[in-house]
Amino acid sequence: MTTTDEIANDDVDVPETGAVFTFGRSKFADNVTNKFWIKNDPIVTVACGDEHSAVVTASGRLYTFGSNDWGQLGHGNTKTYYKPGFVRSLKHEVIRLVACGRSHTIAATETGRLYAFGAGGEGQLGLDDFSNYTSPKLIEGIGSQDYALVSCGTEHSAALTKEGALYVWGSNSDGQLGVDVGADSGAPVVLDVGFPIKHASCGYYHTGIVTKNGRLYVCGENDSGKLGLGDDTSPCEQPRIVRGIDEEVESVSCGNAHTIVCTVSGRLYAFGEGSSGQLGLSTGTLSSSEPVLVDALTSSSSSRVIDVKCGESHSACVTDGGFLLTFGSGRHGKLGHGQENLSNLFCPTRVERFSRFHVQKVACGGCHMLVSAVPRGNIAAAAAAAVVAAAPVLTSAETSVDPLAASQSLTSARHRRRSRELSQGPLSPLQPLGRTLPKLSSLGLKEEIGNGSKAISVAAFSKPKLPDISVGNNLSEPLLPEGIVRAFKPEGSGDDDVPEVSEESGLSESEEEEEEAAEDEAQEEEIGEGKDEKDKEEADGNEEAQEEEDEEEEQNNDDNDDKKNGVKVTDQEAAENGNGTAESSETKDTKEPVEKQSKFSKLFFWKKKKTKRDEGEKTASPNQPEAKQSSVCSIL
């Protein structure tokens, strides 16, 4: 069992801007509880789908990982990604919002555009063609809007503007769109409840809506009473108001068969299925068709909830003090209470893992959870870093500067190219893919038992020579994203180190492409990551092989010295020295080193330990020098 001190030691490598912590079957780090961060670019948004995840950084870059059977990661393929991969086709955009459904993803940009990718057989991509796309596709059915949030269900999606207009599209098989459009809508349509809307959430097959005057409306499937409408459990095809909440509602989150509401005062109301504890109403209430106050959170004034998220059968909430509480199904360790504690929790329980962190965001998926948090005491520093990282990528609309005029301050070929693309208007639409896969409604969900977890130790990536992004699911060659290219600094910033570059670069198109490629290679980013016990065992196993290589290299050097001095090494002497048969110095000089390192031993400096085999060899050859030891290094 991991102790508090061990956890504290594991977290010393977390930067002051924080990290994203993964729990359950996230696909990251072999489903073992772990953490990661993007160097010099804080993560500000996290989202979970059924089996995939997405994060957005302060500079507006989108990273995705997890299952990818339908292209829901947006990388142009259907490979599973076990590490966050940068969505390169959106590098010309500044992403601000993202939402993940069962097998599709929706992203909103700073300029008010919506992109969709993944499964689209029920119209959930909003592209009006019911096709599947492995790369982001611009939703053209809506003009540019200032979006407040996006949300995805199993086969439907929603986007809310800051003015209070809610657009919905996708499957309407159970009335989850709340509009009379038949079985589905391939293009966005407006859902009107008579009042401006401030929040919305898509569940698996139902939808929750909160108006700016604090009322809650619901529509869609009503199994287990998850709409909170009382004894009437029939599907609701038009939005209906939920009674029984005697205070103003701030937000709503919809899971598979349950719904939780957060009020302005910071209290929670839950209804629907709760057999796994996902309602947080204790074992005395395993289901409810009407809203019930979650009493466990009202006993302390310090437990004012500011955010709540529902997964398939678990829930999580964040308090104004930056603490995380989880409840519901503990399978796969997705509640964050340790791999040794997989029990269901029927009351909100504080996650002690974050006692030294201030939790900022949480997202719940089918069988996993993502949490973004910063070390306590560094909240202000993290916020400042996020502002600095986001500032260089302000759009022309925000700075009132023409894109071509702004290009005079750009410092890279990529930015000059982006400037020209913006001046030429919207990008041409991506070519549609053939519809060769069946509809999602014909497929069943499948769960597997996840792997266990052990303690995580401290480690961080150095700077290896990174493989191309196309090696998506090759665990022996870790997938790391393209580096963040620093954008220009606004004029008048006072930074004399930033050179001014004229609009005309004097480079041809091919030369600029070569320059961009060089920039990508020179400025490639690192993803910092924790190290688990499984990696420790691999490292210990590889230490012995590495020490053998060191010993062989030292012996080769000795043999070369002997040859220079006219000393011939016989077979017998070579055997006594632990080399087996004698080899010529020329052969040994040209022999390639044995490649026995694991995927992590290539990225970390491991602290060597003496083994029994080393001690035995030392006894047999007392004059043989010991293998040199290296120490654990921090981020380079």
Relevant terms:
636 residues; alpha+beta; Methylamine Dehydrogenase, Chain H; 2 domains; five-stranded antiparallel sheet; four-stranded antiparallel sheet; 28% strand; globular
Give the helix/strand layout.
Elements: H1 4-10, E1 19-24, E2 34-38, E3 43-48, E4 52-57, E5 62-66, E6 81-86, E7 95-100, E8 104-109, E9 114-118, E10 133-138, E11 147-152, E12 156-161, E13 166-171, E14 184-191, E15 197-202, E16 206-211, E17 216-220, E18 236-241, E19 249-254, E20 258-263, E21 268-273, E22 287-293, E23 305-310, E24 314-319, E25 324-328, E26 345-350, E27 357-364, E28 368-375, H2 379-390, H3 396-399, H4 403-406, H5 413-423, E29 456-457, H6 509-522, E30 527-529, E31 531-532, H7 533-564, H8 571-576, H9 585-590, H10 612-620
Antiparallel strand pairs: 1-2, 1-28, 2-30, 3-4, 4-5, 5-6, 7-8, 8-9, 9-10, 11-12, 12-13, 13-14, 15-16, 16-17, 17-18, 19-20, 20-21, 21-22, 23-24, 24-25, 25-26, 27-28, 29-31
Notes on the structure:
β8 (104-109) and β9 form a beta hairpin. The strands form eight sheets. A five-stranded antiparallel β-sheet has the order 27-28-1-2-30, with no helix packed on it. It has a four-stranded antiparallel β-sheet with strand order 3-4-5-6, with no helix packed on it. The protein folds into two domains: 4-392, Regulator of chromosome condensation 1/beta-lactamase-inhibitor protein II (Methylamine Dehydrogenase, Chain H, 7 Propeller), CATH 2.130.10; 532-620, no CATH class. The chain is built from ten helices and 31 strands. The longest helix is centred in the last third of the chain and has 32 residues, at 533-564.
